[in-house]
Amino acid sequence: MSGWSSLAPETKQKVVEKLDLMSRIALGSTCRADRDIVNSTKLYIPRVRIAKNEDDCLLMIYSGVNRFLRMEFAERADGVLISRSQNSFDPKHKSFKLIPFDMTFGTSTLAMFIAVNVLSKPNILVGTIEWNNVDEFKILCDLMFNEFRRTNNFIVTSLDNLPKIRVKNVEVLGAPDSHLLFFKLLCNKSVLEKVVRVGIVMNDVWRNPRIVSETSVVRRGDEHLSVLSGILMRDCAGFESILETLERALDAEPSDGDYVFHTIRDLGMAASEHFDLLDVPVQKLNEKVTMKRFTRKNGTYVIRFNKSACGFFIHAVLADHENKFLELFQKQTCGIGPFCKKCADSFDYWHYSNITRRIFHEPKWTETPDTDSETLTKESMESEIIIEKRKLKEMEEQNKSIKYKPWGFRNINPHMEEEPEILDEQEAEAVEEQKRERRFVESMIGTLAGTLRDNNFNPQQNNPEEKEESDSESQDSSEDDSEAQDVSDNDVATDDTDKEDSEVENSSASEITSPSENAKLVDQSLAKDLSYSKIVIFSFIWFIISVPVSIYVYRALSII
Amino acid sequence: MSSTEQGTSSAAPAEPTTAPESAAAPEVPESFYYVHGKDKVVHKVSAGALQHSALIHGMISNLGYTEEQAKANPFPFENIDGDILQMVVDWCNQHKGKPTPPEDTNLPKQKEKLFDLVLAVNYLEIKELLTYCCKQVAMMVKGKSPEEIREIWMIPTDAEDEAAEKEAKKRAGKEAAGETAAAAGDAK
Questions:
Q1: Using the beta-carbon criterion (under 8 Å), do B138 and A19 form an inter-chain contact?
Q2: What tens digit of pLDDT does each residue of A283-311 get?
Q3: What's the pTM?
Q4: Which residue has the higher pLDDT, A508 or A115?
Q5: CB contacts, 8 Å: A86 with chain B
Q6: Which of A390, A553, B74, B125 could potentially form a cystine with B54 if both were Cys, beta carbons 3.0 to 4.6 Å apart?
Q7: Using a CB-CB distance cutoff of 8 angstroms, which residues of chain A are in contact with residue B153?
Q8: A231: closest CA of chain B, how far (Å)
């Protein structure tokens, strides 16, 4: 009788290709042979999102347009409550599971641990990992390192040996520095193409992106592009204003060895008339793009106006750096990237054109975007939100007949169809107590890590002034703040580590000179963090035990 | 069964009575070939329908059969059950010269038959039908737990696999020892 076992491995791979992520994981758990089949079948995941809100964490794995697996992690007295849903934001479609977990380091550890375990396979390619407000990355690395050591029988000896995720783009919203360590330690550098920091600026027409303003940097020693991207909901400004903005951006000199160019993409084609009015000869950049090139400030700056069938876009670059990017400029055929309905990947187009709708779908996990309009008030936004909610409700009414079956998840705990709530004051107190304990341990480790950093590990911390600068600049995304955000703080340097520190000082963008050196330093600091934290905890416990015992002994002796 | 007729043996294939679908356009006379499965029932299939199968298409082009020769020598597929071959032939006739739709709902629902069909289609190298079959097989376990998948697809556990392997090795060893003993006896 024929069955799964009688199929050829190639045929099995064809079957696995048709399976979603969770079913693949389930199949891989049946036996060793099937795990090999699953691990040898390619899988593309367009987007993964990890977000943090106070003590809770969110992990979303997208598989296509409107198709995603969603896991929310919330703290409870006896572990972590994971609420899971698939392709729906409706709380009615969630299923819940309470798992016992050491909450000392918070829910984000568990979320990250799951993400890395699921995604760090050589056959899985992730399009974009989105990183919202996730900090404490060092602690996460620390924990994961120990966990991987434990599960791999201590074969993993350094952070460089941690499993790597094959991801093309890392996208960051509101996490200032943690992403740097993330893509250094957990991303496969040969696959990584872009690290993007995204900011959204709203206007009156706030739901549809109109302009994208980008500052792209190729840093010394990096193969990927670091991009600071601002998505604006207003139309492109006048000709002079555009040039002023670009020149201001170019005025900020790049660090030694860094190459910068600026891009403005006009999605609404409102500024395409500037291209026609410009009195400069037209050049054919490639089959699809025509270009008008001119220089400014005595030939120091090069401005390239480009027009394609899809949109109008401008590149501005220092004349000396132009040759470095010629190949990249010539490859542009559309010019408006993921915002083009015709040329972009359907998932990317869907995601970016609906990016502001997150406010309705996931208010808990979405920061309200910045606004540069006086007319867009809180009231007007609220009225918009009411309209949008009504639309969503109508859609849900229409879809009532559709049964949401979370087939991506196993129904492990069928009794928990509703979210268990904190029942009484005692339980609430227990949760609070746990949180307090965690914060104490975190602060202890943070303090110790800070002390150690001064000696032998130089992390990427911004100066307060620079931080302020980058904050203010993030509102006006046309300015170059990539330098401000990335400048390292190298105040303290001991004699022992002078060489290393001077190298770090020279490097920009908080990039530590060589990855192997960096990994060693991180290892050392993590190892010391751990040992110091253990000593502190041990001495704390010893103190608590020894004081009552000594009092008791003293009293006993006095009685005698 | 619209385009095929069951015969009794490969040596004397029965004359098909029903005309193939391509009879509607009789301008160019279409050539026909004959195949049979494990049950020796002969199926008449047009060359156009057989183009779906890379294996049979290759055999035809290499052999250069005339219609008479083809009738006398049906292609034997002894490893394919008769009803499965019937399904394949029907599918090929249905999709002759047509673009294949994104989904096919006429595939068998019983898992044993579906796996037999997958094996046959894989052997005959019918790419489009294999894609549909693989999708159907995948749908059987979508969203299921490892235990459920193991039950549905009858996947042995690692321990069972190892035990079966050991037993097979033992048996092979015994057979080899028996053979050598027999050979030694013969030599004496």
A1: yes
A2: 888 888 888 888 888 888 888 988 888 88
A3: 0.69
A4: A115
A5: none
A6: B125
A7: 3-5
A8: 37
The per-residue pLDDT for range B47-101, each reduced to its tens digit, is 888 888 888 888 888 877 777 777 788 888 888 888 899 888 888 888 887 777 7
Chain B residues touching chain A at CB-CB below 8 Å = 111-112, 115-116, 118-119, 122, 130-131, 134-135, 137-139, 141-146, 149-150, 153-158, 161
Q: How far apart are CA A259 and CA B107, in angstroms?
A: 58
Give B119's contacts in chain A (Cβ within 8 Å). Answer: 2, 6-7
- What does R_g of chain B's alpha carbons equal in angstroms? 22
> Which of A2, A7, A15 is closest, CB to CB, to B138?
A15
The whole domain housing B118 covers 32-142
Indicate the number of domains in chain B: 1
Report phi then psi at B44, rounded to 5.
Answer: -95, 125
Query: What was the ipTM of the complex prediction?
Result: 0.77
Answer yes or no: do A19 and B141 touch at CB < 8 A. Answer: yes
Please check the confidence at residue A494 and state whether its pLDDT lies above 50: no
Instruction: Give the Cα separation of A555 and A249 in Å (integer).
Output: 75
Q: How far is B150 from chain A (nearest CA, A)?
A: 6
**CB-CB under 8 Å, A23 with B143:** yes
What confidence tens digit (pLDDT) does each residue in B129-152 have? Answer: 999 999 999 988 888 888 889 999
- Asked, for residue B167, whether it belongs to a domain, the answer is no
Helices (H) and strands (E) in chain A, counts: 17, 16
Residue A124, pLDDT above cutoff 90: yes
* Residue B93 lies inside a defined structural domain of this protein: yes
Residue A41 has pLDDT above 90, yes or no: yes
pLDDT greater than 80 at residue A420: no
Q: Provide the residue ranges of all domains of chain A, joining segments of one domain with +.
A: 429-454+514-560
Residues of B in contact with A16 (CB under 8 A): 138
- Candidates A15, A18, A43, A85, partner chain B, best to mutate (most B CBs within 10 A): A15
In a domain, B57, yes or no: yes
Q: How far is B81 from chain A (nearest CA, A)?
A: 11
Measure in Å the smallest separation between the Cα of B182 and chain A Cα atoms. Answer: 33
Instruction: Report helix angle B82-94 to B111-124, nearest 10.
Output: 70
Over range A477-493, report the average pLDDT. Answer: 34
Residue A20: which of A51, A56, A63 has the closest Cα?
A: A63
Partners of residue B122 in chain A, C-beta under 8 Å? 7-8, 11
Cβ–Cβ gap A16/B138 under 8 Å: yes
- Buried b / exposed e along A299-331 (16+ C-beta atoms within 10 A): eebbbbbbbbebbbbbbbbbeebbeebeeebee
Residue type, A488: S
Q: What average pLDDT does range B105-112 have in this prediction? A: 77
Subunit contact A15:B134, Cβ cutoff 8 A:
yes
> What's B59's domain CATH number?
3.30.710.10
Pick the more confident residue, A406 or A8: A8
The neighbouring-strand residues paired with A301 are A296, A318
Q: Hey, is A331 helix, strand or coil?
A: helix
